[in-house]
Design brief:
392 residues, alpha/beta, Rossmann fold, Helicase, Ruva Protein, domain 3, 6-stranded mixed sheet, two-stranded antiparallel ribbon, 18 helices, 12% strand
Length: 392
């Protein structure tokens, strides 16, 4: 990584300082013998006493001393145009009150900490800098039951993703192709959008991270954009898939001018996210229950989209039969056809019913399912979604 980026001695010094609290915290003990370095570092209390942590000011003093011209040039290492920021390698901690921003502690970001210490990228932990959870599934493509038109569209999406690298690099089509790929999944809740995102990760052998949109939104002006920027910087160049579930909550229709300052800042956040998603060089999947909820300016920027339609009678029956634990519970005496006709459910709702049935049958050590029990569970799922189109 150092060689690929052609980092200079000055840049390597910054990385060493940022990494030192993890691998050699005693390195900063020498600051005690230098009054300026002691003043420019930050004290942190630990179980073993006081530990000194390097700040941007520490790095600038080591790099430039009292040479103002050299100090100004060294400041560029912490600029937003530098690789440290663009690839989220170095993190600058917060400061209090009117403290200068350069008083913030410098540290290596978790992704690069693992790369430099362990020699490999490790799954990042959920944090304010990376508000996303790893999304996994034990299911396979044959477990995903869809309407034929949805399956056909998804096949196009799979071909697009599988051939992207070849077309972009080997076929030299970068002049008419943008970096990365943006995909929209839309349709009723519970029809398989999240499962499809997980399966795409399996297909491409890439981890899928489900972004916690609520954790990115802040009431403070500008902080939402900072969190989003940190998220994208961390994911950049990592071959990860970012999955924005309920994406319309952030990519919804923008307010018209004159609707107040809150709307103005919300529009700024939508515009920022729109621009950042468009320039991201990885794969982004956005899921929504209603396509019309997504801002039109973003809709037209998707490279592919797939509509997840509600299943017909036959395919709902396939879901019941595929996931029913036949080895342990008999379906004998259950009128599944009548239930489907009266209470059409999504695949997710059907699976919820099967889980509840299995739990109660196991608890009561039954051989068969009482029809009244099954009907009650089906009615519960039907009640959740009846009259709530677009509910998630």
């Amino acid at each position: 990584m150092i060689a690929a980026n052609k980092f200079s001695a000055e840049e390597r010094l910054v990385i060493i300082l940022a990494l030192s609290p993890y691998v050699a915290p005693e390195v900063c003990d020498v600051f005690n013998s230098n009054k300026k370095l002691l003043l420019l570092s930050k004290a942190c209390r630990s179980s073993e006493g006081i530990m000194l942590l390097p700040t941007v000011q520490t790095a600038l003093f080591l790099l430039a001393g009292d040479d103002v011209d050299k100090r100004v040039k060294s400041m560029l290492l912490f600029d937003t145009t530098h690789t440290f920021y663009k690839e989220s390698i170095i993190h600058i901690g917060p400061t209090e009150g009117n403290e200068p921003a350069y008083n913030g502690v410098i540290s290596i970001t978790p992704t690069y900490r693992d790369l430099l210490i362990h020699g490999e990228y490790r799954p990042p932990r959920f944090s304010s800098e990376f508000p996303a959870h790893l999304l996994t599934t034990k299911l396979e493509w044959e477990d995903l039951i869809l309407m034929p038109t949805t399956s056909e569209t998804l096949n196009d999406v799979k071909v697009t993703l599988k051939q992207y690298e070849k077309l972009f690099n080997e076929w030299n089509m970068s002049n008419i192709m943008r970096p990365g790929c943006r995909i929209l999944f839309y349709g009723d809740s519970g029809q398989g959008k999240t499962l499809t995102a997980s399966l795409l990760g399996k297909l491409l052998k890439r981890p899928v991270y489900r972004v916690d949109i609520a954790a990115t939104v802040s009431k403070y002006v500008g902080e939402t954009n900072q969190r989003l920027e940190a998220l994208f910087n961390t994911a950049e160049n990592k071959d990860w898939i970012l999955f924005f579930d309920e994406g319309d909550s952030m990519l919804g229709q923008r307010s018209k001018s004159g609707e107040g300052s809150n709307s103005h800042y919300a529009n700024q956040e939508v515009a920022f996210l729109l621009q950042r998603i468009e320039t991201f060089n990885g794969i982004i999947v956005v899921a929504t229950n209603l396509r019309s909820n997504i801002d039109y300016a973003f809709q037209r920027r998707f490279d592919a989209s797939a509509q997840f339609k509600a299943l017909d009678f036959e395919r709902q029956k396939q879901v019941w039969e595929r996931f029913w634990p036949k080895k342990h519970i008999s379906m004998e005496g259950l009128d599944i056809d009548t239930l489907i006709g009266r209470y059409p459910l999504s695949p997710a709702s059907i699976i919820n019913v099967i889980r509840r049935v299995a739990a109660h049958v196991s608890e009561q050590e039954l051989k068969t399912v009482p029809p009244a029990m099954l009907v009650r569970f089906v009615q519960d799922e039907d009640y959740k979604f009846k009259g709530t189109a677009g509910f998630s």
